Amino acid sequence: MMVLNHTEDISSEIEQVRQRMNTLGGSHGLLHPEVMKCSQQLDELLIQHYALEKRRRHQQ
User: Fold this and answer.
1) Model's pTM, two decimal places?
2) Which Pfam family, an example, fits this chain (predicted)?
């Protein structure tokens, strides 16, 4: 799992994975292994994003 350190990087990656998941889901169905893989990646990225946001708020 790649760990990104900036919310902008994570936000960009979230959008890319979300778009890929939507495209694959539309063409292969939501239960296709690649769609599931994208969903898991998206979950991991969202967790990283929320953790960075929480850390950033506590530093202010």
Assistant:
1) 0.82
2) SpoOE-like
* 50 vs 36: CA distance, rounded Å: 21
For 35, other C-beta atoms within 10 Å of its C-beta total 20
Domains of the chain in start order, with CATH, are 6-59 (4.10.280)
Q: Which long-range contacts (CB under 8 A, 24 or more apart) does 48-51 make?
A: 48/3, 48/4, 48/10, 49/7, 49/10, 49/11, 49/14
Average pLDDT over residues 47-55: 91
* 28, 35 Cβ separation under 8 angstroms: yes
